């Protein structure tokens, strides 16, 4: 295909340089947005009298036919074209002749590509949001099932206080709810049309940028033409939001990897989301969770590369910005692939509540409750804290839990102790009393589930 910029240059570009310059392998996925953007541009040109109504209709009909032919496989995108904009415009001109040459009036590839990527990423952000909501729903359903399954909560990976598997899973649902909000916020700021900024300095034609923006469902237009073509903040914002999605997926995956190990054995992954070993027949490896954890670095890299690419660019457009698409597209592709696997992986894993309960009983996670019980009988908290620590040490020496330590051993250290302490340090009772807002008691978890389901709606 010919070059849209042919005319100034008299010599042929080097073949390797031409391939290096070509972006169609990446930007061809934006063919729909490029065509729809051009349809709106043609409507605006005709409405403003910049081109004739007849030429406008010919262009629109030709573009719609190209879109239909690509969608239905009758037209293959020519990967020898410089970019998708070149391919669409030259295919249009080949089909309808002279009117096709009028399409690019009052437009540059600079504002055209800025428009295309905003339109494309708007759709991707919405689709990724749906995948996030699906995982939030899966976590909520599994939390409903596991809201009474007592397990140890951890700090420093040391058993700390009693929670439930349902409470633990809802923590990830809350993280994802923020991810969803961040994606929506970024998409909202992205809803500004750059078309009409042209190369950098607008145009001498009497265009109607607001009308063209409305046709494409943009709520505003770029207020400064230099900024309109050089702004890629939205790529960075979306990349940052996606990096945080991966942070949360990676943390969830890490816990699933731990929980499914023999050292924990709180869950068992379904065969569909684990693999075996080529040499050790007993192995059941959490490969999908490990891959999600591993791919997190890839999305971080996309974000950092975007920031680095932009940091030293003078205004307005520079060819460096061609890198934006490959990076942000890869980030979306990777996040979507991870979310697609994460939902059924979580949805099909088997809970092993007996093992969770056993770990909770053996970890002295009711020690704080014992200290609180003493405070309720008038002992200062710091004194109660020290006494409870001494009792835990005594239990460790004897190889028993706080529940198994005889009352006489308690009374040797304080006359405040009586039979009611055993009710206070019962693991299930400790959990049920944690009814503070956001806490692990089943009714609190139910409130959290309802909160997330309202967001999903």
Structural overview:
There is one protein chain. The protein has helices at 15-21, 24-27, 31-47, 53-71, 84-96, 109-145, 165-190, 209-215, 225-230, 233-259, 287-310, 323-348, 353-362, 367-375, 381-398, 407-411, 420-424, 427-432, 442-456; strands spanning 150-155, 158-164, 192-193, 220-221, 267-268, 350-351. The protein is mostly helical and 457 residues long. The protein has three domains: 15-105, Fumarase C, Chain B, domain 1, CATH 1.10.275.10; 110-143 and 164-354, Fumarase C, Chain A, domain 2 (Up-down Bundle), CATH 1.20.200.10; 359-456, Fumarase/aspartase (C-terminal domain) (Ribonucleotide Reductase Protein R1, domain 1). Helix 8 (209-215) links the parallel strand 3 and strand 4. Helix 6 runs antiparallel to helix 7 (165-190) and helix 10 (233-259) runs antiparallel to helix 11 (287-310). The mean pLDDT is 94.
The CATH topology of the largest domain is: Fumarase C, Chain A, domain 2
The helix fraction, in percent, is 55-70%
Most strands sheet: 2 strands, antiparallel
Radius of gyration based on Cα positions: 31 Å
Number of strands: 6
C-alpha geometry: elongated
Query: Number of helix segments?
Result: 19
Strand content: under 5%
Order of helices and strands: HHHHHHEEHEHEHHEHHEHHHHHHH
Report how far apart the termini are.
48 Å
Structural class from helices and strands?
A: mainly alpha
Strand order of the largest sheet: 1-2
Name the poorly predicted regions.
none
CATH class of the largest domain: Mainly Alpha
Topology:
Elements: H1 15-21, H2 24-27, H3 31-47, H4 53-71, H5 84-96, H6 109-145, E1 150-155, E2 158-164, H7 165-190, E3 192-193, H8 209-215, E4 220-221, H9 225-230, H10 233-259, E5 267-268, H11 287-310, H12 323-348, E6 350-351, H13 353-362, H14 367-375, H15 381-398, H16 407-411, H17 420-424, H18 427-432, H19 442-456
Parallel strand pairs: 3-4
Antiparallel strand pairs: 1-2, 5-6
Helix pairs in contact: 3-4, 3-6, 3-8, 4-5, 6-7, 6-12, 6-19, 7-10, 7-19, 10-11, 10-12, 11-12, 14-15
